[in-house]
Predict the structure.
Amino acid sequence: MKSYIIGLDNGTTGAKAKLYDLQGNVINESYQEYTCSYPKPGWVDQDIHVLMEANYSVLRDLIDSSNVNPDTIASLGLSTQRGLHLYIDEDGKVLRNGMGISWQDTRHPKQIEWMRNHIGEKRFYEITGLPIGAFWPIGKIRWVMENEPQTIEKAHKIISTQEYFLHELGARDGWYVDWSNGSLFGLMDVKEFEWSKDLLQKTGISNKLMPSLVPSATKVGEVDKRCHERTGLPIGLPLCTGGGDQQCAGIGAGVVKPGLCEFTFGTAGNSVAFLDKPNFDPSMKITCSAHALPTPGWEAEGIQAAAGGSYRWFRDTIGYMAKYIEPFTQMDPYSLLNNLAEKAPIGSNGLLFNPYLAGSMTPHYDSHAKGSFVGLALKHDTSSLARSVLEGVSFEAKDTINGYANMGLDLTEIRLAGGATNSPLWCQIQADVYGRPTRIMREGECAVLGAAILGAVGAGVFDNVEEACEQMVHPMETFEPDPKAHEIYNELHKIYQGVYSSLADSGVYEKLTAFQDKYA
C-alpha cells in the first residue's frame, strides 16, 4: 500500500526533503545547506550542479535514514526558488560554467530602464501581473543577450531549476515549467497562461527558447535507473510538476480559498493571498501571478528580497558569536538571538532596520535600495539591534497588507510559515505590527508540504488540491495583537516609510550603487 509522499524544496540557501504520511505528519527529513556566488556587487549566481547534488543527497539520506519501505512511497513533489534561471544546450548541459542567475541578482539596471521605456510599466503589468523590477528573469535575459551573446547562441532552452531537476530525476521527454514558476519569468500572459507573443517580440527572445507551460501536479515522467541509484527512490515513481516555492507555501498553508493569506519568511519574504479571478492592483505594486494548481487559478503576492535572509545576515555578522559558542551552549544561534531580542522593548528603543540587503521589492521595486540601521545611539545594544531586524522585516511585510487592502481584498486569516514560525517572539511581533491575529501551522515549512501535496495530486493519491489540504494541512496556535503595541508600531512604521522615501528621493541609494560598482 502506498502510504507516504515526499516533498522536496530546493531554495536559495539549502535543499530540504521531507517524508510525510497522508495525514501530514512528518516521518523523516533531511537538509543540506549551500551558498550563492557573488562575483561582483549586485551579481548573484548559483551553481546548478551543487543544487542538484544537494537534491540527490537529501533524498538519499531521507530514504536511508527512515524505516519506510521505498516501495510504499507514492509520489515526489518539487518546490523551487523562482526567478533563478539557467541556460542549457541541446544535450541538457548547463551553460555559463554551470551557473544560473539568481532572483537576487541586480546586474541589469540598464535593461530594467529599457523595459520601462520600450514596454512601459502599465503594459507590462497588464500582461504579466508584475511590476517592472529586478526579480524577474526577463531583464536578465536581455542582459545576457547583450553581454554574453555566445550563451544565447549555444542555448537550446532558458529554464528555471524545476525543469532541470525533473529532467535529471528522470523526466527526459521535454522541459516542462508549471504555470506558477512560468508566471514569474516576466514573459507569461497571466490571464491566458501562455508565453506573451508581444513581450517575446519586444525583447527579441525566441519562443523556441522557452520551456513548455503546463499546470502544477502534471505528471511529466518517472524516476529512472540513474535517479534510483543516486537517491534510493523506486524506479517508476511518478514525477510531477510542483510549483514556485511561495505558491507551494500557499498550498502547504491551505491558502486555496478567498480570504486566506500566508506570510513566509524564508531567505526571501513572501505573502500569498488566494484569488478566484485575476485582481490587479491599481498602484501596480502587488503582483497577480499564477497559483500552483492543476486548473487555472491566481494569487496576489507581495515579495521581500531579504526577510529571513536579513536575520541570517545579522546572525553571521553582528551576532556571529552566537554561532561560535553553539558547541558550548548546545543552543541554536537563532534561539540565542531571539532571547536577546526579547529583552529589548517594543520599538527597539527607537532603532529602525530597513531590510533592503538585496534591494526592495514590494512596494518600491527599487534595485538600488540599501539596508540600514537608522537611529543608532549609545544606548542601543545587541538586543536592540536583533529586535529591530525582526521589526523591520515585519514593517516591510505590513506594506504588502496595506497593498491588499487597496485592492479590496477581505482577509479573514493570516497564516505564518517559514523559519520565523520557530520564534514565538517574531510571530507576536507580526501580529502586533499587522494589527491582526496571526496563526502558525503545525507544519511550518509549508513550501515542502505544498510540494508534497502537488506531487500526490499529480500521482492520483488525492483527487484534488482541496481534498489534500483538508487532510494534510493543520492550523495551530493563534497570536492575538496587543492594541498598545500595534499603536506604537503604527507610529514607528510611518517613520520607517519616511526613511526609505528620504533616501530614495534624494538619490542616496543610486549614489551608493554607483560607488559600490566603482570601488567594491
Q: What stands out?
A: The mean pLDDT is 95. The chain is about 40% helix and 20% strand. The two ends are 58 Å apart (CA to CA). The CA atoms of residues 92 and 512 lie 40 Å apart.
